[in-house]
Specification:
Strand content: 5-15%
CATH topology of the largest domain: GMP Synthetase, Chain A, domain 3
Helix content: 40-55%
Number of strands: 3
Largest sheet: 3 strands, mixed
Structural class: mainly alpha
CATH class of the largest domain: Alpha Beta
Mean pLDDT: 78
Number of domains: 2
CATH architecture of the largest domain: 2-Layer Sandwich
Distance between the termini: 82 Å
Length: 179
């Protein structure tokens, strides 16, 4: 029984991990290089199942054109991959993946919302109490301070944030009634 140092064992394990790297991970690394930047912008490799690569495309036209050139793509990909692929299937079915869409969707900060009023509430320095009448008084002071300098809606004459007037020319309640 021979004893090996921990560094030797870790080195062997690291080499095995690189050797056993998943084919799909390797494919993702070289996809844009193999297909080109234009095609890569309109495609997204999804998975490898039974040596068949499944690729989502942005349109049916891209799927059809790439289906015609799949043999040349297979030759290029198989040079880069440890296990050869048998076929490539192109489809638009998974292009609009909801989880990907959510990541790409821009988040709107409260400051960008048309109804945003700024930090006016923090300047009031009013502390709420447990008394019902005091709580109502607190609420009315906040509402009054919010609507004090706001322009009025041309239809209902309610104080309206300028962003809503700019977007719809009326307040959001009047705008929703028009739909």
């Amino acid at each position: 029984m021979s004893l090996k140092s921990l560094n030797d064992i870790l080195g062997v394990l690291e080499k095995q991990a690189k050797w056993q790297e998943q084919p799909f991970q390797r494919l993702l690394k070289c996809w844009a290089e193999v297909v080109g930047s234009v095609i890569a912008a309109h495609t997204r490799p999804l998975s490898i199942q039974r040596d068949v690569l499944w690729v989502a495309t942005s349109s049916a036209a891209w799927a059809q054109n790439l289906t015609f050139s799949r043999t040349s793509l297979l030759l290029k990909l198989n040079k880069k991959l440890p296990t050869p692929l048998v076929d490539i299937r192109f489809s638009t079915a998974s292009w609009q993946n909801p989880s990907v869409e959510r990541k790409q969707q821009q988040r709107i900060s409260p400051h960008e919302h048309p109804s945003y009023l700024g930090d006016e509430i923090n300047r009031l320095n009013i502390t709420p109490t447990q008394d019902v009448n005091a709580a109502f008084g607190y609420w009315t002071k906040i509402v009054r301070s919010r609507s004090h300098d706001l322009p009025l809606c041309p239809q209902c004459q309610c104080p309206t944030p300028p962003g809503e007037l700019h977007r719809w020319t009326v307040c959001s309640i009047c705008a929703s009634k028009q739909f």
